[in-house]
Amino acid sequence: MDVSLSIPQLFASLTSSNAAVALLLSSLVLVLVLSVYFSLPPHRVKLPGPAGIPLLGNLFQMRAGHARSLAHWTKLYGGMFRLALGEREAVIINTYSGVNKTLIQQGAAFQSRPEFKLWHGAFSKALDPDAPTTIGTTKFSEQISKYRRLLTAQTSAAKLPSFNHFAARRYFRLVNLLSESAKSGVAQDLGFHFWTTTIGISADILFGQRFDEDVTRLVADVNIKAFRQRSLATPVHDYVPLVAAGERLALAVASPLRFVLRPLGLSSWMDSIYNAEAHATELRDAEVGYCKALLKDLHERLDAGDPTPSQMGDLFRAMDDGTLTPNEELRLATTLTGSGMSSGTGLTWLGALLAVRPDMQEKAYHAIEEVYGGEAPDPLDTDRVDYIKALGMEAGRYFASIRLGFPRETHEDVVVDGVLIPKGVLVVYNSYEINRDPQRYDFPEEFMPERWMDGHYGRTDVKQPKVGVPHLNHGAGRRVCMGVPNVNKMFYANLVLLLHFFKLERGPLDDEALANVFPHLRAVGEASLEVHPIDDQVSACDPQALPLAAGIKLTVRDPEALARWLADGHRELDQWERPNPTDTSLHLEAIVDPGIRGHY
Q1: What separation in angstroms does the CA of 510 have from each of 183, 397, 423?
Q2: If pLDDT is split at 50, 70 and 90, which confidence band does 6 have?
Q3: In Å, how far are 57, 85, 407, 590 from 425, measured between CA atoms?
Q4: Can you tell me the distance from the alpha carbon of 533 to that of 536, in angstroms, rounded to the nearest whole number?
Q5: 273 or 375, higher pLDDT
Q6: What residues form DSSP beta bridges with 550?
Q7: Nearest Cα to Cα of residue 331 among 483, 117, 122, 136
Q8: Least CB-packed of 58, 122, 149, 518 within 10 Å?
Q9: Burial code of 240-277, b = ≥16 C-beta within 10 A, e = fewer?
Q10: What are the backbone dihedrals phi and psi of residue 51, each rounded to the nearest 5 degrees, phi first?
Q11: What phi and psi values does residue 505 have, to the nearest 5 degrees?
Q12: Measured at the alpha carbon of residue 183, what is the angle toward residues 177 and 188, in degrees to the nearest 5?
């Protein structure tokens, strides 16, 4: 074959000589014709919204970036508008008052969840067609209400102190990690420090077990990457059945020709489809694998009379009748294992911002000093320092790391402002835009912790009662995130220790530091000094806005005080490690298949 031929000539040559390629091209043309002339997005909701194109609707417009696309349309169409996402019709809520009218005042109608082919199919069902999805991503049912009641009892603020010994060990480890980073004298990204602390706490308290470093890294990495499978408006075949059918047909016809197409650079579309499915299966394999192993270990410890408090263990002890099936146990476990992810994301964003705001660092440090009189703060003594708490609340509002919340689906027909929204419609609350609603927040584009202090609740120009959620990063109304008490507690503890012991300064990442960025997908670039919530995210269409890598150089404020704390800190609380003749920690090789371990 003459490889010097032009691409059109090459296709003509292949078509004339290979019936399979001819069939492939004919199939693609047929799918395109059917798509354009016979497929129109649904239009049941009589709301304004941008015009789309046949078959695809507004899918490609969304792919330009969720936050900016929706912000532009909000200016044109108001606080609630309609989108067509392939075969799905979506209602987008963009204002705080819109959330109040829907998720809160008519919560029963908005309490279900949509299903997506990639998440609920390729990912959640990859290993087992009966495998459970997480509670938070499942359509509403009385069974889901039962599960939420069970987990709410284990995630409440009143319950959390019984797990302090697990959290305390993680905070001690965090300060050790930060101390080692400071000793290096070079800027490092702190994502690993924060995510493995927050997700590590979630896993520890869930199973009542201490995990080694490899397991902690695995659980954190899998949960961050698995969440990316839940993006809205991508991939296209998740929303357009004809595209999905066309891809399947094209793959069936073209797959035998991959050995020909790949050297010619014509197989990338096939590889992307295969790789997406394989990656989803790999992530699910890892998640199911370690959760099953951890549940098995937990049951063995409970049978042996182990009294260690844990969320799953305490739940099992309270259910003597054993009413949960293995799949139900797995559903509960996968729901809570990575519940510290959003805290780690928010801390990574905020750390990069504080590193260029020494004024905020000093204000925080002096606020801690004022409360604790020069002593080290107790990370378990949550919410004592108002400014630290305000920093956390403002980070949740400003960065809005869960950009489009957790999508809802109408459970029944509902009328909002005279507009009928039928049952089964996808409903998305646009967290990023709602968190910048000028009716709710003054100076919405500015990072201002003071909006949450001294009687203020969202606005600096007026004092008002603390009514409603401060921001939409964790949802609202029914199906709100059950882990909010733990999320807030972890965020506060990490932040108060970081700002008490260390000063932060931005600096470039050298080659070694860049290679150690966690997760490594964030190393595609370094965040600007502005730390812009949109421009400095890894992907404009990720469901959770992961920040680009950020080099932070740490300087210890008082080396002697830090050394004393690391040597003796908080031993009087009996929260740290004690000598144990039996090492009960679980290690990576005990819970994960060797083929999966090689990827982490």
Answers
A1: 16, 32, 53
A2: very low
A3: 15, 11, 10, 44
A4: 6
A5: 375
A6: none
A7: 136
A8: 149
A9: bebbbebbebbeebbeebeebbeeeebbeebeebeebe
A10: -70, 145
A11: -145, 135
A12: 65
Q: Which two structure tokens, joined as six digits, stand for 325?
A: 């099936």
Nearest to 478 by CA among 425, 429, 440: 429
Rounded Cα gap, residues 236 and 240, in angstroms: 6
Q: Are 560 and 186 in contact (CB under 8 A)?
A: no
pLDDT of amino acid 300 = 92
- pLDDT score recorded for residue 349: 98
Local structure of 506: helix, strand or coil: strand
Task: Give the DSSP letter string of 353-419.
Answer: HHTT-HHHHHHHHHHHHHHHTTSPP-TTSTT-SHHHHHHHHHHHHHH-SBTT-S-EE-SS-EEETTE
Tell me the mean pLDDT in the region 83-106. 93
pLDDT at 569: 60
Give every CB contact of residue 5 below 8 A, 6+ residues apart in sequence. 13
Nearest to 262 by CA among 280, 247, 274: 274
Strand partners of residue 310: none
| SS3 state at 519 | coil
CA dist 254 to 27, 171, 271, 436, Å? Answer: 11, 53, 11, 48
Judging by beta carbons within 10 Å of its beta carbon (0-12, 13-18, 19+), is residue 316 exposed, middle or buried?
Answer: middle
> Looking at per-residue confidence, does 472 or 595 come out higher?
472
Residues in a beta bridge with 428 = 92
Interior angle at CA 457, CA 452 and CA 462, nearest 5:
110
- No. of helices (H) and no. of strands (E), the chain: 23, 8
Give CA–CA dist 184/507, Å, rounded.
13
| Percent share of the chain, pLDDT over 70 | 78
Do 495 and 392 touch, CB atoms closer than 8 A?
A: yes
Tell me: pLDDT of 26 over 80.
no
Cα 4 to the center of its chain, rounded Å? 47
Q: Write the DSSP assignment of 406-475 as a string of letters.
A: S-EE-SS-EEETTEEE-TT-EEEE-HHHHTT-TTT-SSTTS--GGGGSTT-SS-SS------S-S-STT-
Q: Which residue has better confidence, 195 or 317?
A: 195
Tell me, rounded to whole angstroms, the distance of Cα 133 from its chain centroid.
Answer: 16
The token pair at 297 is 């270990």
Q: List, as residue ranges, the binding site.
A: 481
Three-state helix/strand/coil letters over 543-577: CECCECECCEEEEECCHHHHHHHHHHCCHHHCCCC
* Cβ–Cβ < 8 Å for 177, 500: no
Q: Which residue has the higher pLDDT, 129 or 449?
A: 449
For residue 60, give the amino acid letter: F
Whole-prediction pTM value? Answer: 0.86
- Which residue numbers belong to the known binding site for heme? 481
User: CA–CA separation, 363 vs 544, rounded Å?
Assistant: 29
> How far apart are the C-alpha atoms of 293 and 309, rounded to whole Å?
19
